[in-house]
Amino acid sequence: MKLPMLSSADKLAEIRRLYFTTSRERIDHDLAKALDLLKSMATEEEREKATVYMEGLAQMRSDWGKKVKSRKSKVKS
After folding, report:
1. Model pTM score
2. Is 2 part of a structural domain of the chain?
3. Most buried residue, 17, 30, 61, 65, by most Cβ within 10 Å?
4. Which residues contact 37 (CB under 8 A, 6 or more apart)?
């Protein structure tokens, strides 16, 4: 299978799509994919455009991770 080369706009659009469609179950996978896309961007200017989505994904992972941990501690008590 041949993979297409993505333009900078396509990479940003994919990061944005991941941001809006991720779920608690997929956040780690989607964040890793977004990081790979971010690293493949050629310039700092391109990466800056993705910053808000990357920060949002990281915040979701953090928030959802805390809720899972708090549930586990309640079950053990």
Report:
1. 0.78
2. no
3. 30
4. 6, 11, 14, 15, 50
**∠ at Cα 40 (30, 42), nearest 5°?**
140
Q: For residue 16, which of 1, 40, 2, 37 has the smallest C-alpha distance?
A: 37
Spacing of C-alpha 23 from chain mean position: 10
User: Is 64 inside a domain boundary?
Assistant: yes
28-32: which pairs have CB atoms within 8 A and are 24 or more residues apart? Answer: 28/61, 30/57, 31/57, 31/58, 31/61
Is there a domain that residue 33 lies in? yes
The range of the structural domain enclosing residue 45 comes to 26-68
63 inside domain: yes
Which has the closest alpha carbon to 38: 50, 29, 26?
50
State pLDDT tens for residues 15-74. Answer: 999 999 999 999 999 999 999 999 999 899 999 999 999 999 999 999 988 755 555 555
